Amino acid sequence: MSMNGADVAGYLSADEVRMKMRMSSGFLRFQKWLVIYNLLVDPRPLAEIARHTGLSESSVYRIIAEYNNGGPEAIEAFGKMGHAWFKQPGTFSV
Length: 94
What we know:
With 94 residues, the protein is mainly α. It has helices spanning 14-23, 27-41, 46-53, 57-70, 72-76. Helix 1 packs antiparallel against helix 2 and helix 3 crosses helix 4 (57-70).
């Protein structure tokens, strides 16, 4: 898989993403913003971004898809309302 900065939706600028990183609470949210930031400022193959961020390629791809489909709110929602990755069919969250 290969993506570059053009593959990231233009919701936020690199400076805005950097501010989100600084203000993020929790390491997982910070890592997600770090993936988006990397694609904006230094586009390179997913394998390199995964290695740089300590994530798997599939996680990096999922984060990008999540951001492109749901915008910044999709990144910020992690931990507030639960996350689809961790939900199992037939369960509900309160």
